[in-house]
Amino acid sequence: MGKKTKRNRPAKAENGESKSKSSLAPALREAEEETKDNLRFEDPFPEIVAEDDDDEQWEDADDGDDEQGDVGHDGDGMEVIQSWNPLTGEHLEPGKLEMDPSAYKMVHFLTGEWPSLSFDFIRDDLGDARTKFPHSLIAAIGTQAERAGQNSLTVMKLADLSKVQQQTDDDILGEEYDPEKDDDSDDEESDDEVDLDPIMEHYSIPHYGGVNRVRCMPQRTEIVATWSDQGTVNLFNVSSILQRFSTSEGKTTKMNDIPKKPFFSYKGHSTEGYALDWSLQKQGLLASGDCSGSIHLWNPREEGSYAVSSFYESSDTTDRFVDVSPSVEDLQWSPTEATVFGAAECGGYIRIFDTRAPHKAMLGHKIHANGADVNVLSWNRLVSNLLATGGDDGTLSVWDLRHFSKESPDPLARFTVHKTPITSVEWHPTDESMLAASDDSGAYVYDLSVEEDATTTKDLEIPPQLLFVHCGSEQFKEVHWHPQISSCLMATALSGYSVFIPSNL
Fold first, then answer.
1. N or C, which end of the chain has less CB nearby within 10 Å?
2. Cα(first)–Cα(last) distance of the chain, in Å?
3. Using CA atoms in the order 407, 411, 415, 416, what is the torsion angle rounded to 10 degrees?
């Protein structure tokens, strides 16, 4: 209970009797009877004073423990909100975290009917390097439903993505008076300052089996490839859905029927897989890899179909341990050479292939001495000799392929602060030194141009290259940069999707 204050009692005369009414303070006198000559004044707006129970509140708060790790108390008993980082803090449930709006220029969250492992952006005709709010984007998303027949490939458009409205002193205290300002003139808010409700429009195409990976052809983003957990690779044409998006914007266009199935399916893989990537140099060239260690190449035909052939098998190499799975986890084409692509494999291997030399790797190294799987890789499109990789042990590395011919190449950078497996990595589309990565706990932005100072960073728990941490969702799976909106990222997780622009980018 709180402390009780002593109340003053009326003073007593020396003879022990109470003082007369006239000597008492007015507030302590008994009320006199109201007459014509003695009218009482009644305040129509009486002042209501709340009881002071602060002491009781603070004592009760001190008796209990904090429910979450980011709330504490200072020496005076005041509640203090503390920042939390998944790389250094203790594990917290996503629902116990509270977002700091000042960390974002834009942030929006969306929860779908089913979770998603993978998605990809579809380019639009609104231009590149967009910075003006509100933003809009289109994404192709694959679902992970409970039953194979419940899945779908969903094409979603998000519009009116507005800027985070930051509260300022003027919002709390009112704007400072300016005598030179015309009182009769209304200030017109800029588009950036308008707070709009986001609009979502989406259409779905049935997809048999859960979608392991989604990738859109860079030259024709209406062509979408998917890896099914049923062991099938499918190609969809979603142009009819994009036509409906244009119609909703007021554009006149002819609309075709939305397809009910893929226009091409391939069942030549022996098992399911995750590795899937389109060539940047040759339109329509696709590579797919499965969990048995096989890589197949897709070459487009004039009539619109594809010629698919086996390019590489796990039995083509002998540099593996017997107990290591040969699974190909990820594939990425070179941004400058039409015949070259890289593969991330289980057992800690990275291999570089040339389509002119099938059944063998041109370069290959075991980059993880502990044998941890290489889950993902990304080829820098601006500096073509840089390759980023993410491992199952939480290691994020950057390699210079010019040194890959050595027997034991060293990475240009290696970050080991992640506690859970790296689930995706991707270079910034316009900044050669910046990359985004995700693990189970969050999505992260690194800037490799930040140089370490050995005298000031040796005791830091997190690397100085780490610019931004986005968390709060459950089990992040992929994070991608939008190719046309400056520094905009989208992430998918078990609990839903998030679209955001960090305030420091």
1. N
2. 50
3. 10
Q: Closest Cα partner for 144 from 124, 122, 119, 172?
A: 119
pLDDT at 446 over 90: yes
Longest dimension (CA), the chain: 119
List beta partners, residue 287.
277, 297
Q: List the Cα angle 481/378/263 in 5-degree steps.
A: 75
Check: CB of residue 87 under 8 Å from CB of residue 461: yes
Residue 258 and residue 238: Cα distance in Å, rounded? 7
Output the pLDDT for position 68.
41
How far apart are alpha carbons 374 and 348 in whole angstroms? 5
- Under the banding of pLDDT at 50, 70 and 90, the label for residue 16 is very low
The structure tokens listed for 367 are 């980059």
- Confidence band, pLDDT 50/70/90 cuts, at residue 33: low
**Those residues with Cβ within 8 angstroms of residue 200's Cβ, 6 or more apart along the chain or in another chain:** 110, 156, 157, 158, 159
- What's the Cα-to-Cα distance from 255 to each of 52, 242, 245, 259, rounded to whole Å? 68, 9, 10, 12
- Give residue for tokens 């006199």: 32
pLDDT at 319: 63
Residues 318, 326 contacting (CB under 8 angstroms): no
pLDDT grade for 182, boundaries at 50, 70 and 90 = low
| Dist CA 31 CA 21 (whole Å) | 11
Query: Among candidates 208, 238, 243, which has minimal Cα distance to 223?
Result: 238
Confidence grade of residue 62 (pLDDT, cut at 50, 70, 90): very low
- Write down the pLDDT at residue 280: 97
Q: Residue 297 forms beta bridges with which residues?
A: 287, 309
Which H, E and C letters describe 124-185, residue by residue?
Answer: CCCCCCECCCCEEEEEEEECCCCCHHHCEEEEEEEEEECCCCCCCHHHHHCCCCCCCCCCCC
Is 246 strand, coil or helix? Answer: helix
